[in-house]
Amino acid sequence: INYAANHAVAGDTVRVSAGTYNETVTETTDGTKSSPIIFVADGTVVLRRFDITGDHVKVIGFEFTHINDFGNEAIRVTGATGVELIDNYIHHTSRNTHSGGLTIGNATNLIVRGNRFYKTGILGTTSKDTDAKAIGERYNYNSSSGVLIEYNSLSNVVEYINPAGQKFLIRNNVAGPCGTNWPSAHIDFVQPNGEIQNSFIDANWHVENPMTDSHFYLDEQTETHHVALTRNISVRSGDSLVVQWRLANNHYGAHNIWADTAVGPGRSLSSSHSFLIWDSINNWNLNDVFYRTTTD
After folding, report:
1. For residue 127, pLDDT beyond 70
2. What's the CA gap between 253 and 274, in Å, rounded?
């Protein structure tokens, strides 16, 4: 596959025959918006990793795993625009300090659609290790913009999505169940890995995440503002605290459903608030449903 990546030019489609390819594919060549470089799996194609820095590249239908190989995350997109990751299966990977599944760094107009993330970052992970997240922003590259994350399935991971930058649209994803091997891990559906602005989190399903520190949305970043949470459903979250807006200004929430919280070990409905806003201004939330959340 690497040979093809080194020779492909804008407008080319690389069709990969079924098989196992023990390699890391590095794609540095740019396609264009009208003539992208496309990699398509014909049948079950298993490989170790894709490292993308070229613009307008599509990766469709591959299986990524690191079984018996302790390397980096499965896919990394750095400084590229117009990349599309569609219908891939990412599982049993190792991890770095960013993620075990997909690492994003200063990417623009990125589409992550219809992928399955399962036990990403699990290899070599301890019970308290949070680097096994499915999708994470690369440290020191916290300025991605125009990222669409939709119709993905994420399960048995330590963290789900850690964005940073602006104009994220995270919608129609299913998150859960979380991993049972990390009883002390901090497991959130969305926790910004840096400042996040002008973003929308809509119509996601967060279910069966009963670890002690499991939340739907946890924001503790400065200069985080203009984030909307709408039409999301969270059922059986480990902590009683489902959403926290701290140092988060101009956030908006509406028409969400939060149910059966505080199911984690040692948690109780009287131990905390279910929706907490502090050190923040100009935030508002309305028309949410709270069912068996706290006793407050």
Report:
1. no
2. 14
